[in-house]
Amino acid sequence: MARRTHAAPRKKHEARRKRRRPTQAERADKHDLYQRAVQSPDFDVAFFARAFTNLRGRAPRRLREDFCGTALLAATWAASKRTRSAVGVDLHAPTLAWGREHNLAALPPAVRRRVALVHGDVLDARTAPPADIVCAMNFSFCVFHDRATLRRYFENARRNLVRDGILILEIYGGTEAIDELEESRRCDGFTYVWDQDRFDPITNRTVCHIHFRFPDRSKIERAFTYDWRLWSIPELREVLAEAGFASSVVYWEAVDEDGDGTGVFRRTEHEEQQESYLAYVVGLK
């Protein structure tokens, strides 16, 4: 009969496992990273107000931010002047909840009361009162791949505008817009990576990702993925006219000697092709 033996018990300090410190990627919040790397709400507010006043001869008060995500722009608009209010519309409830907790909660109560967030579809959501400006930033409307759906969106945006309201669409393009490439930019404490994964020249469908990388070599791959149709400026202007907008104008970003964007947008009707451009197409009701 075999003798049964027992291993000697380990000392407590030997049995205790060493706790692994979370990586920077694990500790990061992708919505916070996105806001810091991608958005410039103070610039947007100033540009919107200036463009509206130049086009309509009065100061705008109410903004509707479609595809608002965390509603940072809507919150910034309402906080910029006591006369301003905003509504944000988005289909993704968790992202709206993040915006309420982090962006709206940080506002003074009086400002917070001037911001409303709506969980709904921008294709049919109706908000009151009507807005002076409806905007679709960060190329968000490119989620619509066919002309009929894009027109339906423009028609609903028009219904939610005052009589002299405007719709502002942010668009990008250029010869590099159809290339498969990665571009990185250092931010405070992390690196932002824009990844144009693939492009189909028959459908103009493009799939892009945002990655975040950190000094400790950890990373968040595909923090955000976009399946878009890359619309051209003339297509957007044609569909705006079909949707009932009286006219449209284009604001084009000027570039420096190295071809980099300067952040200065001017109204124009003709431009030379660039490797990369950023523009606003504005529909006038």
Give the helix/strand layout.
Elements: H1 12-15, H2 24-27, H3 30-38, H4 41-56, E1 62-66, H5 72-80, E2 85-90, H6 93-104, H7 109-112, E3 115-119, E4 131-136, H8 147-159, E5 161-173, E6 181-187, E7 190-200, E8 205-213, E9 219-229, H9 233-242, E10 247-255, E11 261-268, E12 277-284
Parallel strand pairs: 1-2, 1-4, 2-3, 4-5
Antiparallel strand pairs: 5-12, 6-7, 7-8, 8-9, 10-11, 10-12
Description:
The protein has 285 residues and is an alpha/beta fold. The chain has two domains: 25-173 and 231-284, Vaccinia Virus protein VP39 (Rossmann fold), CATH 3.40.50.150; 177-223, no CATH class. The chain has helices at residues 12-15, 24-27, 30-38, 41-56, 72-80, 93-104, 109-112, 147-159, 233-242; strands at 62-66, 85-90, 115-119, 131-136, 161-173, 181-187, 190-200, 205-213, 219-229, 247-255, 261-268, 277-284. An eight-stranded mixed beta sheet has the order 3-2-1-4-5-12-10-11, sandwiched between helices. Strands 6-7-8-9 form a four-stranded antiparallel beta sheet. A hairpin with a 5-residue loop joins strand 10 and strand 11. It is globular. Mean pLDDT is 94; it is low at 1-15.
